[in-house]
Task: inverse folding
C-alpha cells in the first residue's frame, strides 16, 4: 500500500455531554478518533457533577494470543547504561515539574498471563502549582501528598496502598504547573473495589492533621532529591528572570522552609489553607478521569456500559463547587524583562557543559492541529546532514542538540510556551560557545528566509500518521495517565491523538509556523551557559536551590539580527528514504511455532526466529548479542567496551538519524559478555539500518579529536553516575554478586591513560573473537531473518570460537548471615540509599 493511502482514522461514535452543569445535561455525538490498529473500545461520558470520563474497554479478541507477551517489541527493561541518559538533560532523573512520577518499586509487571492483566485509572485535577498561594509555595504538591491519607469511608490511611499492592498494582501521583494527576493500576478483577477506595479520596478525604509533619518531610525529601537535577535548578533560576509574581516564578516543589517554617513565623495556618485549597480546587468539574480495563461481560451489559455504571455509581458524589476553573491566560509577556535577555553563566550540579537558548512566546495550545513549535523543533533538533548538530559535531563542539517544546506543564502552559535549544557542549565547544550560538542564530535565519515548507511539514505529518496508524499498546497506567491529562487539553475528538496529530497543511498552518519562526530572534533570546568552570567567578545565588551563577550583558555581536548569514554547511534536511511505505503483512509460513525456533546453529552464530501472528503489524524486532571473552577480563576492557559503543553511536548519529525519524530504532548495550544490538520498527526498511550499523562496526575508526572528546565525556558520565548514591550502590552490589562486573569508579581509573591504539586493538580483537546470538521476531520471512544474520556475520568476520571460550554468566552465592557493605557517597548532602 502506498503510504499516502494509509487510512489514519477509525471513528468511534460516542455520546458526550457538552455541559458540566448538573441541571442541564445535553448530549451530542462526538467522533473520538482512534487508530485503526487499536482494537479497544472508547466511550466519553460526563457525570451529573461535571466529571469528564473516558472509558476504555480492552477486550482482546484474539484467542490464540492468550499466553503471549503483551509487548513483543517493547524493551524488557530500561537500559540503565549511562551512555543514553547521563549526557542528555531531557532524560534527567527528576523529570521537569513532575514529582513522584516513578513508583518506588520501579517497573510494573508487563509480561503477564491474560487473566492477570492490569486495569488502570487516572484522575487529573485541572489545578496545580500555579495556584499555590504566594505565601505558601509548594501547597499544591503538599496537598497531593495529603489526599491519599484515608477517607471517611476508608479511614485507614494505608487502606488504598495496601489494597492495590496486594493485588499486583501500584499507585502514585504527580503535581504539575496546572494539573495534578493521581494514578493506580491493579489486577482487573479488583478494579471496582479499588475505584471505590480511590474515589473516596476526592469525595471525603480526611486530610489528617496528624499526617502533616510526616508529609512535609516527604515533600522535603523529594525537594532534596531534586537538587541533583540540572533541569530543575535551571528552571528555578529561569523562573526568577520574569516579571515579579508570575506563575512560572514560583517555587513549586515545596520544602520544610516554604511549608512549615516561613508560614509559622508569619502566623499562617498551613492546615487551614490546605483545606481551603482543597475545597476550592478539587471540584468535579475541573477533573478528568480515565479508566482502562478488560472487563469481562458477566452481565448482559456491554463492557463499556458496565464500566459506565460503575463510574457513575462511584464517582458521582465528588462535589462540584461551581466556581470558575483557575486560568492564567491573562498573564501575558511573563518574560518581557531586561533580565531575561542577558547572558547567564551557571554552575550546574552535574559535571556537564551545556548551552540553553530559550524563547518565550504566548500560549499556542489552540494551534495543536498544526503544532508550529513541533515543526521548528524538528528542524532545529535534526541530526542529519545540514543540521545544527551535524555542523557542531564536525567542529567537535557539541555532543547533542535537543530543540523544541516538550509539551510539559512547564514548557507549555496557559501563560505561554517556551522554545528551547539545549546543546551539550564539549570542552572545546564551551570555549567557543559564542560561535555555537551564532550557528543556531544562522540556522534560524535560514528558516526565516525559506519560510514554512509544505514538504517538510508533510514529512513530519507522514511520520506521525504512520506512528498513529500502527500504534502499539503502552502500559495501561501510562496510557490512562496520558489520557486523563490530554482530556484537560484537547477536544474529545482529539483525546487520543491531540498530542501528536498534524492536520492537513493549510494557509493558517503556514502562517502560524512562520509567525513562530519570526519570534525566534537573537534580541529576545535568553542565553544560559552551564559549566562547572564558572564556579570561581559566580557571584550570585538563586534562593531555593542555591545555584551559583553570574550575569553578563550579551555581546553586541550576538544581538544584531542582520549579522547571522547562514554558513554554507547549513541547509534543510534532504528527503528521508527510511520512511516506510510498504505495510503489507508477510504470508504465514510453515515454520510457525508458539515458541521461537532455532533456525541457524553454526560455530559462528545462532539465530532464533518467530513470525508474529498476534499483533499483525508490519513491524519487526531484532536482537543480536555479540558475545566475546575479551570484554570480561578486566575493568579496563569494560571501559573500552563502553567507549567503543559511545564512539560507534557518535559515528552513526548523522547517518542513522533519518532512520530514527522514520521510527526505526536502534540501541546498543554493553553487557558483561559483550554487546547487544537491538533494532525495531517497520519491517519495510529496517534492513537498511542494520547494514549501516554493521558497516560502521566493520570500518570502525575514530579521529584523534573525537577519541579525546568522547573519552573525556565518558569520564564525566561515569562521574555523574557514581555521585548518585543509588547508582553507586547498584554498581557495588553487582560487583559483589557477579564475578565479572566492575563499578564505574574502577572503570574511570583506566580512562586517564588510554590511547587510541588500545581502543583499536580492543575492537579488532572483540570482533574477531566473538560469537553471534540473534533473535528476529515480527513481520519477517525466514529468508529476511537469515539475511539479517548474514549482514551481521559478514561484517563482523568473526572466528569460530570453541564453546569453552564463550563467556558464561555466574552469580556469587552470598553467605547466609546478614552482610552489610557500607560505601561512602561521593556527593555530600545526598541521603542514604539501600540496594
Ligand atoms: Zn511528591
Result:
Amino acid at each position: 500500500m502506498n503510504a499516502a493511502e494509509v487510512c489514519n482514522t477509525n471513528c468511534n461514535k460516542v455520546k458526550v455531554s457538552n455541559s458540566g452543569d448538573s441541571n442541564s445535561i445535553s448530549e451530542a455525538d462526538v467522533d473520538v478518533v482512534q487508530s485503526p490498529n487499536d482494537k479497544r473500545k472508547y466511550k466519553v461520558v460526563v457525570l451529573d457533577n461535571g466529571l469528564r470520563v473516558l472509558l476504555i474497554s480492552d477486550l482482546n479478541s484474539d484467542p490464540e494470543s492468550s499466553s503471549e507477551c503483551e509487548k513483543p517489541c517493547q524493551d524488557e527493561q530500561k537500559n540503565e547504561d549511562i551512555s543514553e541518559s547521563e549526557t542528555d538533560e531531557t532524560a534527567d532523573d527528576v523529570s521537569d515539574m513532575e514529582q513522584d512520577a516513578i513508583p518506588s518499586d520501579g517497573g510494573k509487571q508487563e509480561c503477564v498471563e491474560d487473566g492477570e492483566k492490569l486495569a488502570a485509572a487516572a484522575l487529573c485535577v485541572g489545578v496545580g502549582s500555579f495556584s499555590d498561594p504566594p505565601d505558601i509555595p509548594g501547597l499544591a504538591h503538599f496537598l497531593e501528598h495529603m489526599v491519599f491519607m484515608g477517607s471517611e469511608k476508608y479511614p485507614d490511611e494505608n487502606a488504598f496502598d495496601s489494597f492495590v499492592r496486594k493485588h499486583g498494582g501500584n499507585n502514585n501521583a504527580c503535581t504539575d504547573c496546572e494539573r495534578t494527576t493521581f494514578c493506580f493500576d491493579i489486577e482487573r478483577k479488583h478494579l471496582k473495589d479499588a475505584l471505590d477506595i480511590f474515589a473516596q479520596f476526592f469525595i471525603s478525604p480526611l486530610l489528617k492533621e496528624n499526617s502533616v509533619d510526616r508529609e512535609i518531610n516527604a515533600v522535603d525529601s523529594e525537594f532534596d532529591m531534586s537538587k541533583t537535577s540540572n533541569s530543575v535548578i535551571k528552571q528555578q533560576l529561569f523562573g526568577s528572570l520574569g516579571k515579579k509574581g508570575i506563575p512560572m516564578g514560583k517555587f513549586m516543589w515545596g520544602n520544610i522552609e516554604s511549608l512549615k517554617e516561613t508560614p509559622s513565623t508569619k502566623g499562617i495556618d498551613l492546615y487551614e489553607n490546605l483545606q481551603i485549597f482543597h475545597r476550592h480546587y478539587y471540584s468535579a468539574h475541573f477533573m478528568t478521569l480515565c479508566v482502562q480495563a478488560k472487563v469481562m461481560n458477566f452481565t448482559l451489559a456491554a463492557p463499556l456500559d458496565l464500566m459506565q455504571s460503575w463510574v457513575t455509581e462511584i464517582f458521582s458524589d465528588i462535589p462540584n463547587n461551581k466556581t470558575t476553573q483557575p486560568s492564567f491566560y491573562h498573564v501575558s509577556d511573563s518574560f518581557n524583562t531586561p533580565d531575561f535577555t542577558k547572558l547567564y553563566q551557571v554552575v550546574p550540579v552535574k559535571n556537564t557543559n551545556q548551552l540553553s537558548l530559550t524563547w518565550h512566546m504566548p500560549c499556542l495550545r489552540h494551534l495543536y492541529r498544526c503544532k508550529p513549535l513541533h515543526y521548528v523543533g524538528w528542524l532545529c533538533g535534526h541530526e542529519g546532514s545540514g543540521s545544527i548538530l551535524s555542523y557542531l559535531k564536525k567542529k567537535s563542539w557539541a555532543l547533542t542538540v535537543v530543540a523544541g517544546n516538550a509539551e510539559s506543564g512547564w514548557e507549555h502552559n496557559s501563560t505561554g510556551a517556551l522554545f528551547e535549544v539545549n546543546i551539550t557542549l564539549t570542552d572545546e565547544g564551551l570555549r567557543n560557545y559564542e560561535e555555537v550560538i551564532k550557528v543556531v542564530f544562522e540556522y534560524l535565519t535560514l528558516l526565516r528566509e525559506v519560510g514554512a515548507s509544505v514538504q517538510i511539514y508533510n514529512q513530519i505529518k507522514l511520520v506521525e500518521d504512520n506512528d498513529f496508524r500502527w500504534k502499539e499498546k503502552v502500559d495501561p497506567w501510562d496510557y490512562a495517565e496520558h489520557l486523563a491529562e490530554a482530556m484537560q487539553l484537547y477536544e474529545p475528538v482529539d483525546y487520543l491523538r491531540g498530542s501528536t496529530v498534524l492536520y492537513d497543511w493549510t494557509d493558517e498552518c503556514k502562517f502560524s509556523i512562520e509567525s513562530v519562526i519570526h519570534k525566534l530572534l537573537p534580541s529576545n533570546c535568553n542565553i544560559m551557559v552551564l559549566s562547572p568552570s564558572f564556579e570561581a567567578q559566580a557571584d550570585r545565588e538563586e534562593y531555593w536551590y542555591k545555584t551559583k551563577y553570574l550575569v553578563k550583558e550579551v555581546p553586541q555581536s550576538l544581538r544584531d539580527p542582520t549579522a547571522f548569514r547562514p554558513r554554507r554547511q547549513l541547509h534543510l534536511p534532504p528527503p528521508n528514504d527510511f520512511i516506510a511505505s510498504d505495510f503489507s503483512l508477510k504470508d504465514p509460513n510453515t515454520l510457525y511455532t508458539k515458541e521461537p525456533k532455532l533456525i541457524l546453529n553454526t560455530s559462528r552464530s545462532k539465530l532464533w526466529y518467530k513470525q508474529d501472528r498476534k499483533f499483525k503489524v508490519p513491524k519487526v524486532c531484532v536482537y543480536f548479542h555479540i558475545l566475546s571473552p575479551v570484554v570480561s577480563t578486566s575493568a579496563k576492557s569494560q571501559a573500552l567496551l563502553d567507549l567503543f559503543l559511545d564512539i560507534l553511536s557518535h559515528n552513526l548519529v548523522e547517518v542513522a538519524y533519518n532512520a530514527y525519524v522514520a521510527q526505526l530504532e536502534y540501541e546498543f548495550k554493553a553487557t558483561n559478555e559483550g554487546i547487544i544490538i537491538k533494532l525495531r520498527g517497520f519491517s519495510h526498511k529496517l534492513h537498511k539500518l542494520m547494514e549501516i550499523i554493521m558497516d560502521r562496526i566493520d570500518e570502525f575508526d575514530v579521529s584523534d579529536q573525537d577519541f579525546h572528546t568522547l573519552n573525556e565525556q565518558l569520564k564525566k558520565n561515569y562521574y555523574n553516575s557514581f555521585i548518585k548514591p543509588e547508582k553507586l550502590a547498584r554498581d557495588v552490589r553487582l560487583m559483589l554478586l557477579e564475578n565479572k562486573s566492575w563499578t564505574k569508579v574502577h572503570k574511570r581509573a583506566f580512562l586517564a591513560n588510554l590511547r587510541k591504539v588500545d581502543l583499536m586493538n580492543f575492537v579488532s580483537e572483540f570482533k574477531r573473537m566473538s560469537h553471534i546470538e540473534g533473535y528476529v521476531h515480527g513481520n519477517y520471512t525466514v529468508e529476511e531473518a537469515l539475511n539479517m544474520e548474514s549482514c551481521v556475520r559478514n561484517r563482523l568476520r568473526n572466528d569460530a570460537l570453541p564453546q569453552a571460550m564463550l563467556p558464561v554468566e555466574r552469580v556469587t552465592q552470598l553467605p547466609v548471615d546478614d552482610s552489610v557493605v557500607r560505601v561512602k557517597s561521593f556527593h555530600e548532602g545526598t541521603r542514604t540509599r539501600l540496594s
